[in-house]
Amino acid sequence: MLRRPKPTDSEADLLREQELFLNSGASSKVNVVRRPDKRRGEAFSILSRRVLFAADLPDQLPTLTPAPPKKSRFKANSVRFEEEDPEERLDRQDTHISAVLSRIIERDTSSTPVSLPPFTGTAFPKVLRLSEADGQVQTWHWPSAASGPWLVSGQGLGGPDSPAETMRIHRENEAKLQAMSESEIREEQKKLLSQLDPRLVEFVRSRKAQSVPPSTTPSKYPEDKRDQEECLPKNVDNESDSSSAAGLHQKPLEVEMEGELPVKPQKEWVHMDKLEPEKLEWTRDLPAPRRKGTKKAMQARFDFAGTLIPPTEDLPTHLGLHHHGEEPELAGYSLQELFLLSRSQVIQQRSLALSTIASVLAKARAGEYTSVLRGNMTSTLLDAGLLFLLRFALDDSVEGVMSAAVHALRALLVSPEDEECMDSTFSWFRGLASFPLLPSSQEEEDEDNEGLEENMKETVKEKEERKTDYDVARLDVVKGLLKMKLLPRLRYILEVVRPAPRVVQDILEVLTRIARHSSSSATQVLDCPRLMETVMSEFLPTSWTMQSLPLPQSVYGLPLASAMKLLRVIATSGRHACARLLNSLGARERLSRLLSVEPSELLLEPAEALRITTEAYRLWAVAAGYGQACNLYMSFSIVCTVQSGRLGPEITASLPGLASAGWRDRPNLAALHSPFPLLIGLGLLMDTLTGIHKGLSSKVGLLEQLKSFLEVPHEPKVAKHTSLYHQVALVLLPWLLPSSEYLAHELLSTIVFSKEFISEGHSGGPEAIELSELKLYEDTHHHTAPSFQTVGALLREACVQLPSIRGCFLTHLAHLEASVLVSRDAYLGRNPWINSQLLPELTGPTLPSDWPFLPLVSLYERMGVSNGGGLQVEELPQGALQAVTHCLQWLLLLEVWREDALKVVLPVAKLARLSCVFLCSSDLFLERPVQKLSWGLLRLLTRPSRLDSLDLDVPPPGLASFQDLYSALLAQYEAVSFGDRLFGCWVLLPLQRRYSSTLRLAVFGEHVGMLRSLGVTLEQLPVPLERFTSPPEDSLPLLRLYFRSLVTGTLKRCWCPVLYVVALSHLNTFIFSQDAAAQVMQPVHYR
């Protein structure tokens, strides 16, 4: 008899046992199964066990030849990017046991009951067998032996006699159950339940309750025994097996379901012999839609056109808007459901979901959801991964899905109102130039380069390459798409797929939006292999045939206006790009072909012919702006017929726009029938003619009529409006954007600081101010401030110093010299020196709104104030006193005669900027010119109308809060004030009762020592005392400080008269007020 191998057997023993086995001729108990190769068409076969003897081995090793490579049928279905790291892919697809074990989480067993085995006299506790836990109540009927076992299947028993062994075990279990009493069964059942997980037992009971319908007959067992019966095997009387019992339980439910179904199942229907209640629930009628609680936000649902469906609207089911979701009674699809359907295996579902997302995006960009939905719809979709969803959908092999993805991408990127608005302003002066649509720059923490030398730090390009697609797309949508290889995919669609006309138009508009992003993006569009060649050959041909249908089935081989617009936008990005289009790609020939004939002779639909002719002229204008294609007019006769546009309010940080929403709905200069573009073009033409030769001005009668308006100061009828021109120039300055530095320089040099445009300076203006001050003195009978000179005298001196003031401001704007030169070339039409029609990045206006304070703020930034309040540079630079004097003179002039020009600056910002006089140096405010001008400005800022508008709770621009600035002022006053009355009035101004008590707490708490030198008298105070004493103080900590300073002698009338009177007034009001007495009943502890 053969024996099984043992671990102690040697190799010789194994070989000997093998020979005995082979000689005996017995059949093998193990079969070797080789899986068939389906690719070779092999059938499934069973190979006999092969035995290898040492004598069969060859003497020499066979030569190793490489096996033919195997073709994987799964490799073609997987998509991999070239930059994908193989190591990351292996880690993601690793199915090793370590990958499974690493995700094992230990279960919390602190609340699980533990039952210890009972103590017995044996060495080991008795093993609990499942057959011993199954009991039988004497009144219950157990299945007979003929019906077979319920729990023991015999699957683990081997051998030919396993069924007989299974029946033997079943009879043994049945005999043990028959011998047990009911109490013993209950005890064993409780013991078994205590060892099981309570949640598992509850789950089984709940499933049991769902599968078995409640019986209408009362139970014969008590209620406390019902839970125990569920864990025991059940049987029904007069039934032979369990299947018949299950049939009895299921029969009434099927009959009930058949009565409720809208369609009654027929016997001949396939697979309807057994009803499934859970699946057939969907065939019932939907309940009426109900509105949830109004306080809780509801999930937005949309129809296929992107329209928001109200939750109370009951729509018919034939519209296809009801589905098997979490809320089947509500029509429409949520964003989560649309995202899920866009990755469906059903082609129609993918296409429909992407089309619906495109409609939602289009309506969101138009602002239709702003008043009904919370948050920004576009930002929500981008945060949910919309960009990656669309990029993956573009790779779909089904053309319908790919077309829907292109349409959704166009709805995300392109704003039709933006394009329309920029097209309508193209004919304006400098209208062909446009700002790049770049997101606002966000500073990122550079932790990797901290502590490294400059030559070891990463460059900007290296940082961009190291970023993931998600990180790039989160900050810049267009740059993220370029990183995800969007351009090669669009080229493939245009060149190989050759889609429908709508998809072609969408792709061209997407390429135009990418080119508007920046000059680098436009260069990538131009450099993409075969992309622009396909556009030129397919959509801007030099010859084509007339189409018989107004809407052709294909636009391939026909010139398109959107393709010409793409060329124009790319040409705007730079001189080099424009030259490549004209010379290398054949744009010059296309211009000659399209502009040499009338639009009606282009063999195109009339509207399309007019649009493409317009775009051709615009491209020619851009090229001529660089001095290129200027001789193109020699090849044809010019017939110029130009006809020319709003961004939805939803703008995301990573996808900026022009914010031109609703521009067509209100009167504006960019309207379709506005004469503004024609007037600008005519003016430029006349300016060019007069620039060629002065004698040409007499040949044009219109120029003679405009001459009087151009020479404003020399014509008496026009000179009276010089103040108006000056005010317009002051208002225009803060509105000038980057690339308009030349205009700002010209305004500052010729108009803003010109005596001829400030007529008040030489027509009795200073004298009128002096008379008003005299009248004010007679009305008040006291001096409001110890001014050394009246404001009128200060204004007279400022008018004399206007040339020096102009030189001061131009010196502080010298850093804009390079930008001024570039802007001058563009505005003067010096085409050979223009490198790009794409304007600099829009980071703000050329000059800030508070530019009149520029010399003062620049000096403060140069000196620098440390955290302790001290100055980093003690000595003032050369010319600083003169610069501050000129700045204060200009501010005084504007406050008196051009008050409207400074309305854009908040009163708190004015106070903060003027505070730099005291923070720049330890003695600058003591200089006599600065003292006189500062007193004059303080008197203007403390007029009743100005005091009412001064709100110190609003943070000044550039500062976190006014309290931080005031703390620096208090520290500077304690250090260097020497009891100066001007500085004292400046410190007292924020201590008015209407402002925050935190400012007063800072004086009486942290800087109480300054009360000894704050000697401003009541007569010198420029603010009425009632603003400090009314209404009564309600801050108990501040009242305690008032009381402590008076009792300890820190605050005396001879040292600080103003605050002495203020503290005494508030304390008297508090002590003799009944309301205050009620508050004292609650003790307040001061630390």
TrEMBL record:
<feature type="region of interest" description="Disordered">
    <location>
        <begin position="205"/>
        <end position="253"/>
    </location>
</feature>
<keyword id="KW-0539">Nucleus</keyword>
<dbReference type="Pfam" id="PF25766">
    <property type="entry name" value="TPR_RPAP1"/>
</dbReference>
<feature type="region of interest" description="Disordered">
    <location>
        <begin position="440"/>
        <end position="463"/>
    </location>
</feature>
<feature type="region of interest" description="Disordered">
    <location>
        <begin position="64"/>
        <end position="92"/>
    </location>
</feature>
<dbReference type="InterPro" id="IPR013930">
    <property type="entry name" value="RPAP1_N"/>
</dbReference>
<keyword id="KW-0804">Transcription</keyword>
<feature type="compositionally biased region" description="Basic and acidic residues">
    <location>
        <begin position="454"/>
        <end position="463"/>
    </location>
</feature>
<dbReference type="GO" id="GO:0006366">
    <property type="term" value="P:transcription by RNA polymerase II"/>
</dbReference>
<dbReference type="Pfam" id="PF08621">
    <property type="entry name" value="RPAP1_N"/>
</dbReference>
<feature type="domain" description="RPAP1 N-terminal">
    <location>
        <begin position="168"/>
        <end position="209"/>
    </location>
</feature>
<feature type="compositionally biased region" description="Acidic residues">
    <location>
        <begin position="442"/>
        <end position="453"/>
    </location>
</feature>
<feature type="compositionally biased region" description="Basic and acidic residues">
    <location>
        <begin position="221"/>
        <end position="232"/>
    </location>
</feature>
<comment type="similarity">
    <text>Belongs to the RPAP1 family.</text>
</comment>
<feature type="domain" description="RPAP1/MINIYO-like TPR repeats">
    <location>
        <begin position="852"/>
        <end position="1078"/>
    </location>
</feature>
<dbReference type="InterPro" id="IPR013929">
    <property type="entry name" value="RPAP1_C"/>
</dbReference>
<dbReference type="InterPro" id="IPR039913">
    <property type="entry name" value="RPAP1/Rba50"/>
</dbReference>
<dbReference type="InterPro" id="IPR057989">
    <property type="entry name" value="TPR_RPAP1/MINIYO-like"/>
</dbReference>
<protein>
    <submittedName>
        <fullName>RNA polymerase II associated protein 1</fullName>
    </submittedName>
</protein>
<feature type="domain" description="RPAP1 C-terminal">
    <location>
        <begin position="299"/>
        <end position="364"/>
    </location>
</feature>
<dbReference type="Pfam" id="PF08620">
    <property type="entry name" value="RPAP1_C"/>
</dbReference>
